[in-house]
Amino acid sequence: MPDKKQILLTNDDGILSPGLWAAAQALESLGEVMVVAPREQWSGAGRSLPAHSSGCIYEETITVNGQACKAYAIEGTPAQAVLHGVLELLPRLPDLVVAGINYGENVGTGVTISGTIGAVLEGASMGVPGLAVSLQTDPQYHLSYSTEIDFATAEFFTRKFAQILLNMQRPLDVDVLKVEIPETATPQTPWRMTRLSRTRYYIPQKPQREKLTDRGYVGYLRRPEPDIFEPESDVQAMLDQVVSVTPLSLDLTSRVDLRELGRLLNEG
């Protein structure tokens, strides 16, 4: 009998996130799921590896589908959780890294801010395909552990695309699938191949404070104008209320003719 698939699961909202445990429920029938997640909330961490993170690891036990599930809480970011999972906790290199299910959509030019995306990119840099799953929610829930959010549909699509990635031969340069699920979606909602929008979706907001030495948080608002987003973009899919599936690559090289660019640079 072939070995079971090995899945490393993390979440930038931390070890206690209901979205993390919804993903664990979705994945447990597909293979051996190892949960390794930050001990604290790390939304917005990107792929950061802070030198001040202690890296301490704490063993946890959580019930998933009626079964006791061993998990590990890391003093560090989502990307660091992936590193500790691969280097210390898993018996071998995983077949898939999954990050999610995230409270709030990760779309447009802000995706590199996301700890959800950062975690799977870290896994991809080690040769492991990644799946990042986010559920559209009102911003008031983005940093919450709210149980008002129904993850059932997101679980369905997490399982669907995880199973596909575990069984397919990935095309070259597809390191990660980024899946965004509209808040109105059901398992019958269609999905669409998309690309990252080149427009910012979350608009930074100036801190409200009297003097610069006061604490000041740069907030954000969702961009309201629907007419500025590209038809094939992940943002437009959210506006159309269909599931967005975007392939991501670790190769950040601009898609230009390098010889022509070199000529222009020489002329400058």
Supply database-style keywords.
268 residues, alpha/beta, Stationary-phase Survival Protein Sure Homolog, Chain: A, nine-stranded mixed beta sheet, two-stranded antiparallel ribbon, 11 strands, 24% helix, globular
Please give a structural write-up:
It is a single chain. With 268 residues, the chain is an alpha/beta fold. The chain has a single domain, classed as Survival protein SurE-like phosphatase/nucleotidase (Stationary-phase Survival Protein Sure Homolog, Chain: A, 3-Layer(aba) Sandwich). The protein is built from six helices and eleven strands. Helix 1 (18-27) links the parallel strand 1 and strand 2. Helix 1 crosses helix 4 and helix 2 packs parallel to helix 3.
Average pLDDT number: 94
Strand content: 15-25%
Largest sheet: 9 strands, mixed
Secondary-structure-based class equals: alpha/beta
Mind telling me the C-alpha Rg? 19 Å
| Tally of helical segments | 6
Label the overall shape: globular
What is the N-to-C order of secondary-structure elements (H for helix, E for strand)? EHEEEHEHEHEEEEHEH
**First-to-last CA distance:** 63 Å
Strand order of the largest sheet: 3-4-2-1-5-6-7-11-8
Number of domains: 1
Instruction: Look at the structure and name the CATH superfamily.
Output: Survival protein SurE-like phosphatase/nucleotidase
In CATH's first tier, which class applies? Alpha Beta
Percent helix, as a range, is 10-25%
CATH architecture: 3-Layer(aba) Sandwich
